[in-house]
Every structure is written in C-alpha cells, then in structure tokens.
Design goal:
By secondary structure, this protein is of the alpha+beta class. Helices cover about 50% and strands about 10% of the residues. It is built from 20 helices and eight strands. A five-stranded mixed sheet has the order 1-2-3-4-5, sandwiched between helices. A three-stranded antiparallel sheet has the order 6-8-7. Helix 8 runs antiparallel to helix 9.
C-alpha cells in the first residue's frame, strides 16, 4: 500500500511538472540536444519541473542511436566538469585562509557539474535503473574513448554511495518467487548455464540447495548479485555431481559443508561496486544459524585464465615456469578428448597440478596482481586456497578455459580478517599445506607474468 501511494504521488508530481515543462518548451527553440536538456536540468530550481525534466532527458537519451549516446558522453566529459577558474579562486582562498568554510567551498568548486546532473537524473521515476543502464553504455565505450574515464569515475562514485551495503536486502530465491525474478536468475547465471526451468528448479527447490540474492529498493525485482549453494557431506572436487539431474538430495540437517558453486553479478552498469564480499559473509551467517551441523564453508570455483596462462608459458622465450619435459606432456592436451584417455590423464595430472600451484602462489600480472580474477576476489575477501581439483569441470567451457581445473576456497570465520589483511597489505596468499605441497620440484620463479586484461 505504501509503495503504491508513493509511486502514485511521484507520478502526479511528474505529470504536473511535465505540464510546466511543456509550456516552457513553447518558448524555447525546438530540437534541443540531450546536452542542452542537461543544461536546462542543471539550471532548473523547481522540484516538480526538475523531476519531469530528468525523466524527459532520460527518455531522450534512450531514443538515441549509438553515435548519439557517444556524443552525449563526450559532452559530459568536456562541458560538465568543474569550472577551472572557480576552482583556482577557491584554492587561492583556502591557501590564504585554510578554514573549514574555505575547505568546503573548495570541495564544492572542484566537484564536476555532471555529478549534480547525475543526482538530479536519479530523482526521476525509474532514474536509478536508467542510470545503471547508462553506465553500462559508458563502460562499452571506455576502451575506444579513454577520455570518458572521468565521467565513469563520477558514475562509479555516486553508484557506490547509492548501492552501499546499508541499502541492500538479502532474499532467498525459491520456487515460490515471481516468475519475472526466476527468469532473470536463468538469464544472469554467468558460471554454469541454467538450461531452462527444470534445471533452475533442481538448483533451488531441493532441501539441500539454496540460492540467495541481493536486491536494492530502487531496482524492484532486479537481482544485483546471487550465489548458488549446495549443502553436502564433504568438500566436492567436481561440479558434475552437484549439477547432475539424477542426484539424490541429502537431509540438510546432516550436511557438514556449504558449497558456493556459482556467484553471478547481474548488473554490468554496477561493475566495480562491491557486493560479493558482503553477500558471502551474510549467507555464511544465515546458513550457520539455520544448520548448526555445517562445519565448512567453501567455494567450488572456476579458473578462467589458467589455460591462457599456461599457453603463455609454453610460448615464452624464457619458458620460466616449465620443466624440461613439461612441453611434451602439455602437448597431449592439444588433442580433443584427451581427458577421456586414462593414460593421458595420469601423465598430465601431476604437471597441471604443479603448474596450478605456481599459477596461484607465484604468478603475477604486469600490475603485480594474481592473474586469476576469481582468486583475487576470494583471497581479497579473506578466504584460503584449500584444494585444487583436477578435471573438476569437463564441460567444453571448463576444458577450454582451465583444462577442466577447479579450486576450492575455504571461508573460515576465525581467520577471514587475518587472511584478508595479509593479502591486502602484503599480497600473501593463504593456502593449505596440500596446495603448497604441489610446488615441490617446481623451477625457481622467473618471469611469471600474464598481461593484465
């Protein structure tokens, strides 16, 4: 009832504002550009007209073709920054008198005008969703237009504030949810494709399965990020049994392990806004309360750049990561179906396991970070690299990305903060003794980089 009341009230405000805006348009030249509408919105003062003008601008932007949208971002970059002279005057005043008042004046003067524009656009009905979609358009253009980066910085700054943890709502997704939400879960799944409604039901309906998602009040029925969980009797080393159609569910009260086997970000326009660390920690708390028998909280994660990294070592002039006989063994994996030949599998297994340990414990990108994005995420959250799973994912995608390799990251509530600090401050990778043991016989690290993508 309350939600409908405020929606109706806002619609009434917008409608009245539109009437005022339309009368104003009669006195303005026709064919106003979207940048011109942005100037009008910034110069306006009335709340009703401002909301209506914001909606008009967003509607106009939505009607633009690709070139028109690029032109709008160019205008934001060149015409809606901070005024240099105003900043200089405020800076001189602060240098002469470093008072709190002058500091605030300098702060206000240095803020780009486009930040206020984005704030005003957010007031329109559906404004938040439209801005998230707008940033997705912007991100697609950054590679070809690096001069748009300051615009993206402003979007990221404001969206990070609006989507902070205090506004997020955790919801369990089950078969009773509206079909519109369930359809989006199918569409947004980014790790292990959901093949229709029956497959989705197998992932959320059995008693030993859970799916949790974060939502935001401004994006109704739009999940931001979700995690799929399997309750098991031990740490799994392959994804196949978890996703098998004919598997037999277990009594969740007897489960000892919660397995986070898929984490999917849903909104490209919110890239860089951190949700995953909050999601995992809150889900751990929820599951621990619901199932006291749970002793371990682990992931079953892909290694999306492992094969590319190994191929880089194979073609490197220094060949710093490989032992003399490794190339001949790795060549066996160039033949499709190698993983179905037991003799080849046994020959390849120790080489790939050792290289995986080097990949996670020694390799760095040109930027000095771990080459694996999934590892950066989980280790940055305070997890420990617990287990390397050879041929954990033999799907075509798994074999092409990682020779089928998967890994388990362990979330131990007692050590999360300590491990997070060690990784964040010193780059130390928390790893189990079993993983470290795989490094035996490895060559001394030389050039281990994989160009950052």
């Amino acid at each position: 009832m309350t939600s409908y009341f405020f929606n109706d009230l806002l619609s009434t405000i917008v409608d009245r504002g539109r009437a005022i805006v339309e009368r104003g348009r009669e006195r303005r030249p026709s064919g106003r550009s979207v940048a011109g509408l942005a100037e009008d919105l910034l110069s306006g003062r009335g709340e009703a007209t401002g909301v209506a003008m914001a909606r008009d601008l967003l509607d106009t932007y939505a009607s633009l073709d690709s070139a028109g949208r690029t032109g709008f971002f160019r205008a934001l970059a060149t015409e809606f920054g901070a005024d240099p002279e105003t900043v200089r005057e405020a800076a001189r005043a602060y240098i002469e008198d470093p008072s709190e008042a002058n500091a605030m004046t300098l702060h206000g003067a240095s803020e780009p005008r486009r930040q206020e524009l984005i704030r005003r656009l957010n007031r329109a009905p559906g404004g938040t969703a439209a801005l998230v979609a707008m940033r997705e358009d912007l991100l697609q253009r950054l590679r070809d237009h690096p001069d748009f980066k300051p615009v993206d910085d402003d979007f990221a700054h404001l969206l990070g504030s609006w989507f902070n943890r205090g506004f997020l709502v955790l919801r369990r997704i089950d078969w009773s949810m509206p079909a519109a939400i369930l359809e989006k879960i199918i569409r947004y799944e980014a790790v292990h494709e959901i093949n229709g409604w029956d497959d989705l039901r197998r992932r959320i309906d059995p008693p030993d399965r859970r799916l949790f998602a974060f939502f935001h009040p401004a994006l109704i029925d739009e999940p931001l990020i979700f995690v799929e969980v399997a309750l098991t009797s031990g740490i799994p080393d392959a994804i196949g049994p978890i996703l098998a159609e004919d598997r037999q569910p277990i009594d969740p009260s007897q489960a000892t392990t919660a397995v986070f086997y898929s984490i999917s970000n849903c909104q490209t326009g919110l890239r860089g806004v951190s949700f995953g660390n909050f999601l995992i920690k809150q889900v751990v708390d929820e599951l621990a309360r619901a199932f006291p028998s749970l002793k371990s909280f682990v992931t079953l994660s892909p290694a999306p750049t492992f094969r590319r990294w190994v191929e880089a070592q194979r073609t490197s002039e220094t060949n710093g990561m490989l032992l003399p006989d490794d190339e001949a063994v790795l060549a066996l994996t160039d033949t499709p179906g190698w993983n179905d030949d037991a003799a080849i599998v046994e020959e390849v297994r120790p080489v790939l396991a050792r290289l995986a340990a080097q990949y996670y414990l020694q390799a760095k990108t040109d930027r000095g970070t771990l080459p694996d994005p999934v590892a950066r995420f989980h280790l940055g959250n305070g997890a420990r690299l617990e287990q390397i799973d050879f041929l954990g994912d033999t799907s075509p995608k798994g074999l092409s990305e990682s020779y089928g390799l998967m890994v388990n990251y362990l979330y131990d509530p007692k050590s999360i903060e300590r491990q997070h600090e060690a990784y964040a401050n010193k780059g130390e990778v928390a790893a189990s003794a079993g993983v470290k043991k795989l490094l035996r016989g490895a060559p001394e690290p030389k050039v281990l980089a994989l160009a950052a993508g």
